[in-house]
Design a protein that fits this description.
Elements (H helix, E strand, L loop, with lengths): L1 E4 L2 E4 L2 H5 L1 H4 L2 H6 L7 E4 L2 E4 L7 E2 L6 H11 L4 E5 L10 E12 L12 E3 L4 H11 L13 E7 L2 E8 L6 E9 L8 H15 L3 E7 L3 H9 L3 E12 L13 E2 L1
Length: about 260
């Protein structure tokens, strides 16, 4: 099935349908897969360890106990980031942000090694953070480098473009945090970074996928030209736990 959507081709193949159960809630798939060591669990709720990321996954049918567990994992008034989940919030929880997005998968990506791409490390964390804060491609914390890999371009020593490999559901790798300083856009840097990352993912025998906001037509056209196809519409949502957790008893989560 295919149709035009936002200037790129929306195609759902049998291969994409077959893996829908993994990517419908990518945070859960990642934290029960390759990234289990980076997560904590309390009951049926999962999240990345505090300081690494705010990404979390609830059960599909959260019950009162699940919300207690989520509050304990979040901490008083702290935010959890849900991808592909849009539950009704119980009393005490508040919505922080809510946006519509799309998930794209590339079974046959345009992949190419680029010798000018630089591997970024902890020494680059503050520069990555500054670039992310200016361009707002999505969440990044300095300690995200513990579980994700980041790459970039430098011009005269300045970091001007970044992209990363983040969540890792079994058999997949998420291309994320693709951003370029405004004055360096139009030079194909984002395209080159994504092609380079797709090459790395292919070498691992995995399939790249990514998320984008539904209204980013130029971005979606770029990804479509690199072999990414629409798999699902989904929601990005940030929710804040109650500030008073007396009704939500705290306790350490278990490693997932």
């Amino acid at each position: 099935m295919s149709c035009a959507r936002g200037g790129y081709r929306k195609t759902i193949t049998m291969t994409t349908e077959a893996i829908s159960h993994l990517l419908d809630v990518p945070v859960r798939a990642s934290l029960t897969g390759d990234h289990a060591r980076f997560g904590v669990r309390r009951g049926r709720v999962l999240r990345y360890k505090p300081g690494l990321a705010t990404f979390a996954a609830l059960p599909d049918d959260p019950e009162p106990q699940d919300w207690h567990d989520a509050a304990a994992l979040a901490g008083p008034g702290q935010v959890l980031y849900l991808v592909g989940q849009d539950p009704e919030l119980p009393p005490g929880w508040t919505g922080v942000s809510h946006s519509r997005g799309v998930q794209l998968v590339a079974d046959r990506p345009v992949a190419r090694y680029d010798e000018e791409v630089r591997v970024l490390g902890f020494q680059d964390a503050l520069e990555i953070l500054a670039l992310v804060e200016e361009t707002k491609p999505g969440p990044f914390l300095p300690r995200s480098l513990q579980y994700a890999r980041y790459f970039g371009f430098r011009v005269h020593g300045e970091l001007v473009a970044v992209a990363g490999l983040r969540m890792r559901p079994e058999g997949f790798a998420e291309v994320s945090t693709v951003c370029t300083l405004p004055e360096y856009r139009g030079r194909g840097l984002a395209r080159r970074l994504v092609m380079h990352l797709c090459r790395l993912v292919a070498q691992q025998g995995a399939t790249p996928f990514l998320h984008a906001k539904a209204d980013q037509e130029a971005v979606l056209r770029l990804y479509g030209s690199l072999g990414f196809e629409h798999r699902a519409d989904l929601v990005f949502r940030q929710i804040a736990a109650p500030r008073e957790l007396s009704a939500y008893p705290l306790g350490g989560g278990e490693a997932s």
